[in-house]
TrEMBL record, chain A:
Assembly behavior: Septins polymerize into heterooligomeric protein complexes that form filaments, and can associate with cellular membranes, actin filaments and microtubules. GTPase activity is required for filament formation. Interacts with AURKB.
Major site of localization recorded for this protein: cytoplasm
Protein name (record): Septin
Protein family per UniProt: Belongs to the TRAFAC class TrmE-Era-EngA-EngB-Septin-like GTPase superfamily. Septin GTPase family.
Lineage: Eukaryota, Metazoa, Chordata, Craniata, Vertebrata
Localization terms from the record: Cytoplasm, Cytoskeleton, Microtubule organizing center, Centrosome; Midbody
Length: 370, 509
């Protein structure tokens, strides 16, 4: 007994502590959905989280759409399952790709994402950091039309604009319009195009080599099926003798949403909610946010930019009423040190010159005396 | 009480040719039954009328209880061939009322006048729809010589008769015996078959909506090589129209079909003015025809490249028409017949289709977009009834496929998915048969007529006004040489000559 006690330290229980703390704290997750209207975005979200997030949505009429511009809408819902609370925020982009001229229609989206980063940066650099609200967008589900021949020019433009700022998961909406061969061909084409245009979508982390074969296989399957071809539905179809399933009933058959042979809904749900939710948040924080922060601060380090930025920042009231420090302390110190060095050198030079002058003076006096 | 026509055989055939009518008593009834006084030669029944008029009653409907020679006499005893020919120039004005033969039965050939009830029982006798289309449905109130009214198959409505019944005092056409005018139909048919038909359609829509597949399915031939999803050429940067012409033949009838495709429509980020090349193409075809038409020595048959029908593919979003759709349709409906369809409708359930369709119809009404069949071109009540049914279902929710699969032992065109096979020609699955019937089987000629009589004429009037050309009298165009514009270029000499001749003739300048 004693021997075992000596070896057993006890931190194997740490994950449990983490678990308890997380459960108490709850999770929050911000998901953005983007894509043309009519690709089944809202249905898919409702199916994913099994809540009707779009209950009060009013679809605009055709005449209203003629003058519609892109707006950003946020909806929040708290989902609880098994004692764990998830505070889900959904960011929607109605009006995307609807108008005749869609040039620059992605700019409001980019601005929104950057605003969230900026808010977080300010909160992080402020004094009171106890309750930082993380409103950064953790994941963007981008819906691609199943009727096109791959990515459309608008898709490419949007993805290029946001791929360094948010985790992108491309999704093919309304995939029940496609036959199996068509789905494969379309996925292949999209993957090629993404590579060609150098768009960085969210990369699933490779599973560890010590995972079991089953898990590895599942993982490989999931990676193969990106972009996910999904079908969404909240209606339960009861087909006579068979058990009730969620699906869409057509006169030629019923598409089952949760059938892996019919669509990739299960894969998407597993990946988004069950296995990689935390990873998405981490990548957002460690990679994307840090990248944004570095860019932001480097641009501030340039003198001209710095002044402009400082003025604009001071003009805006921050919550803590303290002007945001422009540079991290390390950098200011460096500058100060440099300046100090310069001063010191200059002082030394002056002293040397003074010494020389004195010497020459004394020498001159001495020579005069003699 | 309706007297069964059997007691009063309206037609007697002799050697397969209709001779006249004999009633049960053996008396010849014939057309002189349509006497001015409305009296029947034969019976003492209240004023009989073959075509439903009585002298006393202004109402055109037959009085209940009176007899009518149905003059159709198409009951089983007639041979099918004779019936077809007869059917073409015969009909009875059976107005459906209680006790009268219901339309659709074998006895009576015609339209019941109950609103919306346009079944011609021609179909029950095994006639094809083409034949029944050759019928002239008498509008209510018309007086017809029921016996040997020859029919102009090219017109669908009866010759312009006064809408109110003419006074029974006017002498009817008394034709005793067989003249043979009906053979005109055969002549026309032979000529048409020799010359062949032309039909030009244009398909417009975003890429991937199944336009090429739809054309292949419509004409059951590989007009285009439909590209598989994901493969094929990338969408072009600008809109380029491509035309393909094929001659297809069915049962001796040749059809020269030209299909114009519009790849790249609506695919760019900025789709403003993407409709201009299409409108330009359509105007160009009208211009070509106009140029041919104003020549002094014209060709016998002007090659017709005008777009007769434009099929617009609406993506199945399920919400409503997009701004691009509305802009395009508004502009196009003024120059060409447009038939909107809901493309790739296999992604919508039946209920979703209905809501989408209603919304689209509402949008079209709000924005005053008149799609084919246009309400204002309905010539008479029958047209209106037929076309209302079509208008109720427009836009059709269609699915296209050019692969065949085995379903219940039959080979059908369809799309095979893991949850079922979508049969293209099954009305329960999609409305492709309705589209095909509209475009090819029933309204092909009408599309061409409206293009020629309405759209082309509008274009012509605009062009002539533009070049300050004044029409001199019906069908006579005085063409002065225009300083600029395509009219000047091709045959200035001929045009000028004609203008000179005209100016010599007319002193009204």
């Amino acid at each position: 007994m004693g021997g075992i006690d000596k070896e057993y330290v006890g931190f194997a229980a740490l994950p449990n502590q983490l678990h308890r703390k997380s459960v108490k704290k709850g999770f929050d997750f911000t998901l953005m959905v983007a894509g043309e209207s009519g690709l089944g975005k809202s249905t898919l979200i409702n199916s994913l989280f099994l809540t009707n997030l779009y209950e009060d949505r009013q679809l605009p009429e055709a005449s209203a759409r003629l003058t519609q511009t892109l707006t950003i809408e946020r909806r929040g819902v708290e989902i609880e399952e098994g004692g764990i609370k998830v505070k889900l925020t959904l960011v929607d982009t109605p009006g995307f790709g609807d108008s005749v001229d869609c040039s620059d229609c992605w700019l409001p989206v980019v601005r929104f994402i950057e605003e969230q980063f900026e808010q977080y940066l300010r909160d992080e650099s402020g004094l009171n950091r106890k309750n930082i609200q993380d409103s950064r967008v953790h994941c963007c589900l981008y819906f691609i039309s199943p009727f096109g021949r791959g990515l459309r020019p608008l898709d490419v433009a949007f993805l290029r604009a946001v791929h360094e700022k948010v985790n992108i998961i491309p999704v093919i909406g309304k995939a029940d319009a496609l036959m199996p061969k068509e789905t494969q061909a379309l996925k292949q084409k999209i993957r090629e195009q993404l590579k060609e245009e150098e768009i960085n979508i969210y990369q699933f982390p490779d599973c560890d080599s010590d995972e079991d074969e089953d898990f590895k296989r599942q993982d490989a399957e999931m990676k193969e099926s990106i972009p996910f071809a999904v079908v969404g539905s909240c209606e339960v179809v009861r087909d006579g003798g068979t058990r009730p399933v969620r699906g869409r009933r057509y006169s030629w058959g019923t598409v089952e949403v949760e059938n892996p042979h019919h669509c990739d809904f299960l894969n998407l749900r597993r990946m988004l909610v069950q296995t990689h939710l935390q990873d998405l948040k981490e990548v957002t924080h460690d990679l994307l946010y840090e990248g944004y922060r570095a860019r932001c601060l480097q641009s501030l380090a340039r003198p001209g930019a710095r002044d402009r930025a400082s003025r604009s920042k001071l003009s805006r009231q921050s919550a803590t009423e303290i002007p945001l420090p422009m540079l991290p302390l390390a950098e200011t110190e460096k500058l100060i040190r440099e300046k100090d060095e310069e001063l010191r050198r200059m002082q030394e030079m002056l002293e040397k010159m003074q010494a020389q002058m004195q010497q020459s003076q004394t020498q001159g006096e001495q020579s005069e005396a003699l | 009480m309706y007297r069964r026509w059997g007691r009063r055989r309206a037609w007697v055939e002799r050697d397969g040719r209709p001779v006249g009518a004999q009633d049960a008593a053996g008396e010849w009834i014939g057309a002189d039954l349509v006497s001015s006084s409305g009296e029947s030669r034969v019976s003492k029944a209240p004023p009989a009328f073959v075509n439903g008029f009585t002298s006393t009653q202004p109402h055109p409907l037959p009085i209940r209880g009176s007899f009518h020679a149905t003059t159709v006499g198409l009951k089983g005893k007639c041979s099918r061939d004779v019936m077809t020919r007869k059917a073409q120039h015969l009909y009875y004005l059976g107005f459906q009322r209680k006790g009268l033969p219901t339309s659709g039965t074998e006895d009576c050939l015609l339209p019941g006048n109950s609103a919306g009830d346009l079944k011609h029982c021609g179909t029950s006798n095994g006639q094809t729809e083409e034949d029944t289309r050759m019928f002239c449905f008498p509008a209510m109130g018309h007086r017809h010589c029921c016996v040997l009214g020859p029919m102009d198959p090219m017109r669908r409505s009866p010759s312009p008769c006064p809408s109110r019944p003419s006074s029974p005092r006017t002498p009817p056409c008394e034709m005793l015996g067989y003249v043979g005018i009906e053979a005109v139909l055969d002549q026309l048919k032979i000529k048409a078959m020799k010359m062949g038909f032309e039909f030009n359609i244009m398909v417009v829509g975003q890429s991937g909506l199944g336009k090429s597949t739809m054309v292949n399915t419509l004409f059951k031939s590989k007009m285009w090589k439909s590209t598989v999803q994901g493969l094929g050429t990338p969408t072009p940067q600008t809109l380029k129209l491509q035309s393909v012409t094929h001659v297809i033949e069915e049962k001796g009838v040749k059809l020269k079909l030209t299909v114009t495709d519009t790849p790249g429509f609506g695919d760019q980020i900025n789709n403003d003015k993407c409709w201009d090349p299409i409108l330009g193409y359509i105007s160009e075809q009208y211009e070509r025809y106009l140029q041919e038409e104003i020549l002094i020595t014209r060709q016998r048959h002007i090659p017709d490249t005008r777009v007769h029908c434009c099929i617009y593919f609406v993506p199945p979003t399920g919400h409503c028409l997009r701004p691009l759709d509305i802009e395009f349709l508004q502009r196009l409906c003024r120059t060409v017949n447009v038939v909107p369809v809901i493309a790739r409708a296999d992604s919508l359930t039946i209920e979703e289709r209905e809501t989408f369709r209603r919304r689209i119809q509402h949008n079209l009404r709000t924005h005053c977009i008149e799609v084919y069949p246009q309400k204002c071109f309905d010539e008479d009540i029958n047209d209106r009834i037929l076309n209302s049914k079509i208008r109720d279902r427009i836009p059709f929710a269609v699915v296209g496929a050019d692969r065949e699969h085995l379903v219940n032992g039959r080979c059908v065109l369809g799309r095979k998915t893991k949850w079922g096979i979508i049969e293209v020609e099954n009305l329960a699955h999609c409305e492709f048969p309705l589209l095909r019937d509209l475009l090819i089987r029933s309204h092909l000629q009408d599309l061409k007529d409206i293009t020629h009589n309405v759209h082309y004429e509008n274009y012509r009037v605009c062009r002539l006004n533009e070049s300050h050309l004044l029409p001199r009298g019906p069908g006579w165009v005085n063409l002065a040489q225009t300083p600029a514009g395509p009219l000047a270029a091709p045959q200035p000499s001929k045009v000028h000559q004609q203008a000179q001749e005209d100016s010599e003739d007319g002193d009204e300048y």
